[in-house]
Amino acid sequence: MNTTAPWPYPFWIAHRGAGRLAPENTLAAFRLGARHGWRMFECDARLSADGVPFLLHDDTLERTTSGRGVAGGLPWGELARLDAGAWHSRAHAGEPLPTLENVARFCLANRYLLDIEIKPTPGTEERTGRAVAELAARLWPAGTSAPPLLTSFAPDALRGAQTAAPHLPRGLLLDALRDGWLDTARQLRCAAIVCHHALWDAALVAQVKAAGWRALSYTVNDEWAAERLIRLGTDGIVTDRVDLFSPA
After folding, report:
1. Catalytic status, residue 197
2. Cα three-residue angle 127-56-69, rounded to 5 degrees
3. Which of 36, 57, 167, 196 is catalytic?
4. Which of 28, 86, 152, 214 is 20 to 30 Å from the Cα of 170, by its Cα?
5. Does any domain span residue 7?
6. 2 belongs to a structural domain
7. pLDDT tens, residue by residue, 128-178
C-alpha cells in the first residue's frame, strides 16, 4: 500500500475509543465515540500471560484498572475480572477490559475501522505483533477493503506482524526522528508513518510521501494544530477531542 494506491481510511481517528470522555480502551468508549459520529478508532493491544490480545495502554494496571502490577504477567481470566471504568467516573464503574477480538467484532458488526497500536510488554515485542496480526488476519481475511491498520513504536512488534500477516497495512509510530527510522520503515514495508504532530513540517511530509507512505499524526487536541496539519497535506489525525472535531 502506498500513496499511489487508494487509502481506505478516513482522515479523523478517535483516540482509544472516545478520547477522554469515557474510560479509554473499553467498549463503552467505542460506543460513545460512535454516538458522536466517529467511524474509525485507535486502540492499544497487548498480550496476557496466556497469550490473549486485550486492550490496555500502560504496561502496568494501576492507572486505569482496579488491578496492580504488570498487566502482561497475568492470565486473561484474572484480567477479565478487573474494573476498568471506575477510575474514570462512577457512571462507568464495573466496565471490564475487553479482548481485542471483542472490540474487533463490534467494529466489524458496525462497519467501523480500526487503528490497532501494538503495545508489547517489554520482551514480548515480536510475539505480541504476531498474535495481534494473526487475530486481525483471521477476522479480516485477505482482500478485505479496509483491514485494520497495525501501528507500533516497536519495530520488532511490526516485524512480528509482518511475518504473520504481510498483507495487513503497517504504520511506524515515531515520537522523534531517530537515526535509521527511514530504513526501518522501508524494511517493514510500512504503509504509513504516524508522528507526534509537532514533528511534521513541509519537508518531512514531502519526504514521507515521496517514499510512498501516508502521513498521520497523534494526538491532536487543538484546532490550530489540526489546521496546520491539514495545510501541510497530511493524511490522518488521531484525537481525543471527539466532542470538538467533526469526523465528517
Report:
1. no
2. 85
3. 57
4. 28
5. no
6. no
7. 999 999 999 999 988 889 999 999 999 999 999 999 999 999 999 999 999
